[in-house]
Design a protein that fits this description.
There is one protein chain. The protein is α/β, with parallel strands linked by helices. It has helices spanning 3-15, 30-41, 62-73, 78-91, 102-108, 110-119, 136-144, 159-168, 191-201, 216-223, 233-255, 261-264; strands at 18-24, 47-51, 96-99, 124-126, 148-150, 152-153, 173-176, 207-210, 228-231. A 9-stranded parallel beta sheet has the order 5-4-3-2-1-9-8-7-6. The chain has one domain (3-256): TIM Barrel, CATH 3.20.20. Strand 1 (18-24), helix 2 (30-41) and strand 2 form a beta-alpha-beta unit.
């Protein structure tokens, strides 16, 4: 059973598509990040993507880098992620994925990480720097603990890489709409449309599009051809500037871009 696929399917049935919201755990403190994640879930986000702060976030833009740096400077540890998740999942039923680079998982111990993630109510992992053909340890552990695993596909991905991402993923395939680091952009790259079509043609059943989405209009645009719209930097910026009140307002604004089930069908 995939908690994330179930969450996306429910969102499609109810509102025509899923809003997937990213926030870093531990920002600005662990307690604050728990409140923020719960706020997202109660403000229109159908799936939570909770980032594990890391000292070398090569794929993250400046807004997220600054937030994760703050979390680390405030003493965030990997064990804090599991205690935060436990509090979040006790309050809301929204599926919660952890987004993490692979080195922290290896350092912590893959089986130990998977076991504690499951015990905390986590749905699985998004691993942006782990490619499917090098993920045998994670495939084994995620299967053992019944966790979702989300791999990335990019416009530059070969057909072979597309197939590998689809076959290895459970929950959804993360379609990276633009090449480069995360951050809001004025226009969602048109390459995303072509990439999603390729993923569909190769058999992908659940696809989320991320990198650069920051407005309700862009959410609506993405959900006209994909199953989920992934928003990160815009939400982190709202939290940074105005706390949970501004975060809730931004999430609700983004959620207003979901099409109706009739429009999506």
């Amino acid at each position: 059973m995939s908690l994330v696929e179930d969450g996306i399917d429910a969102a499609i049935a109810q509102s025509g598509g899923a809003l997937i919201g990213y926030l870093p755990l531990g920002f600005p403190t662990v307690d604050d990040s728990v409140e923020a994640a719960i706020t997202l879930a109660r403000s229109g986000c159908d799936v939570l993507e909770l980032g594990l702060p890391y000292s070398d976030p090569v794929m993250d833009g400046l807004v997220i880098q600054q937030a994760t740096t703050t979390a680390l400077e405030n003493g965030f540890r990997i064990s804090d992620a599991f205690s935060a998740l436990k509090q979040i999942t006790a309050e809301v039923n929204t599926p919660a994925l952890v987004m993490t680079y692979w080195n922290p998982v290896l350092a912590y111990g893959v089986d130990r990480f998977a076991s504690e993630l499951k015990s905390a109510g986590g749905a699985g992992l998004i691993t942006p720097d782990l490619i499917p053909d090098e993920a045998h340890l994670w495939k084994k552990a995620s299967a053992e603990f019944d966790l979702d695993r989300v791999f990335l596909a990019a416009p530059s991905s070969s057909d072979e890489r597309i197939d590998q991402a689809i076959q290895a993923s459970r929950g959804f395939v993360y379609a990276v709409s633009t090449m480069g680091i995360t951050g809001t952009r004025n226009d969602v790259d048109s390459a995303a449309v072509t990439l999603v079509r390729r993923l569909r043609a190769h058999g992908a059943s659940h696809i989320g599009v991320g990198l650069g989405i920051s407005t309700a209009t862009q959410v609506s645009e993405v959900l006209s051809y994909a199953d989920g719209a992934i928003v990160g930097s815009a939400l982190v910026e709202a939290l940074s500037q105005g706390g949970v009140v501004a975060l809730a307002e931004k999430a609700l604004e983004l959620a207003s871009g979901k099409p109706s089930p009739t429009a999506a069908s």
